[in-house]
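Example record for the data management plan.
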Amino acid sequence: MYAPSIFEDRFMDGFLDDFFGKPVSAINRMAQPMRTDIIEKDGNYEMSIDMPGFKKEDIRAELKDGYLTISAGNNETKEEKDEKGNVVYCERHSGECRRSYFIGTHLTEDDIKANFENGVLKLEFPSEEKKPAVEEKKLIAIS
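Corresponding structural encoding:
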């Protein structure tokens, strides 16, 4: 029998956020897959990967054996003290997310352009394999 989970639909986030100072939202951000849109435009693929809450230096893109792997990780520490300097609240969170995409063995790192802005990683690379240029036959004049 299927029973709905109150933790999957974020039913309790508002309550827990108000009580604990928003830790649940940060945890849910790390648990979600990196939502990706891929479109083909003008002979290129354009990927947009949502990565809210990360900074450019937190993100790593690697190409190996035709797989483009995007990973991101961060460490957060939040500490609150009262007026006497006593710690009344301390929280630590660290996490990493990673996702791989097969983009083909014909591409190199130089073929991929990446840009990170406003929490979205955008990548662009050729959609078709480069074909070697066919050498033109040149005739030699015989006298």
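Summary line stored alongside the record: Helices lie at 13-20, 23-31.
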